[in-house]
Amino acid sequence: MTTRTLVLDEDGLDVLELALGDAIPRLPRFRGGTGFEGDLVLTDGENTPLARLPAGDPEARPEALQPFARHGGPHWDPTLRMTPAASRERIAAATGGRPVLGLVIDDVPTFADLDRAAAAVDDAGAGAVLIAVPVSRRRRAPGTVGWAGLTRTALAFAEALRSIRTGTRVVTVAVPWPAAESSMGTPLDLRAVLGAYGAPGAVRLSGMRSPAERDGIAGLAGVHEAAIHSIYPDASAAEVLRAGIEAVRTGVVVLFTGLSGSGKSTIARALAEDLADGGPRGVTLLDGDEVRQHLSAELGFDAPSRARNVERIGWVAAEVARHGGVAIAAPIAPFEASRSRVRAMAEAHGAFLLVWVSTPLDVCEARDRKGLYARARAGEVTDFTGISSPYEEPADADLVVDTATTSVEQAVASIRALLEARLDG
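RE: above sequence
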C-alpha cells in the first residue's frame, strides 16, 4: 500500500495544529473526496513530515511525526501557545467552581473595551477569564497591527484586567486559527474550539462595541491624510503624501546561506515576522524548499542547477528591493559565485546582507527533520550538500550565526541591528 503526501498551506497548518492539540475532534474532510488509499502524510511547505493519517479513514486522528517549524513573535511563545489541556488546567486551578469568562481579542483593545470586560466579569461572577488571541500563520494586511502586536496588546489588556479584578484568574492563550478557507475545506467553529480551551461561550471584544465606536475606529486610517488635506491644496497634499511613501522606499535583501538543518529557515521566518511587525516596508520570504516547488521545479540538484536556482531567487529578491520591499531568502546557496551574483543584483537596488548560518555539520545532521542526511549517507540522495556535494564557506558574510550556540531571538536581534545600521548609513 502506497503513502501519499499532502503539502499544507498556512491555513492547513493552523488546522493541523488544532487537531494535534485536541482542540478539534478530527481534521475536516479533504477536498476532492472522502477516502484515499494508503497512509496520508501531511507536510509543510518545506516538505517536513508533520503528521500521518492512517489508510482508509480521512477523519481519523492524525499521528504527530515532527514538530512544527518555529516562527517569531510573542504569539509563538510556548507559554501562550499552549494546548487546550494546559489551558484548562491553568483555569481549573483558580475558578473555585465559578464560571469561566472567555474574551476573544480580535482587534486592538480600547479603554472602553477594558471597562466592558471588567463589567462582564462582574455580571458573570467569573472565577477566571480566558483571553484568547486567534493568530494565523498568514500575515495580516499591510496597515493593520500584526499578530505580534495584537498579542502584545492582549497581554497588556490581561495585566490591566488583573489589576482591577484582583480576585479573578486571567489566562492568556494564543490560538492557531486559519485566516481564510484552508486546504482542509470545512470552516471551523471558534466558540467550540475555545470550549476545548476551557471557555465555552466566549465573546469577541469587538462585538461588544457600539456601531459608533466601530465606525470611529474604522475611520482612523484616514485621519492623517485628512489632516494633510485640511492644510494643503490638493496638488500640495498629493506631493506631501507621496514624499511620506517615498521616505521608506529603500529596498533590502537578506540572503541566508548554510547547510540543510542549520536553522536558516527558522531564523528567516522569525526575521520576516519581526520586520513585518509594525515596519513600513512589505516583507517577502523566499524559502529555499518552497521556491524549489514553484520557481525552480524543473531544476535538479547538480552544481549548475543549484547555481541557477540561487540566481533566480536573487533576481526575485532584487525586484522586491527595487520596489522598496524587504526580501528574505533562505536557500542553501553553497557556491560563492552564485552568492556574489545575488549580492550584485541586490546592491543595484538597495541594501544587502549575507548571513552565514554556520551551524556545524554534525549538529545539522543530528536535527535531520526530513531524514535527508540519513538517506544521503545511505547513497539514496545524490549531490547532497555537506555529504556528496561541496559547501563553499563564505568569506564575505556580513554576519555569522551558529544556531548551536545562538538562539533564534539573539540571531534576529543581531541581524536587525546590522540592517538598521546599514540603512541609516
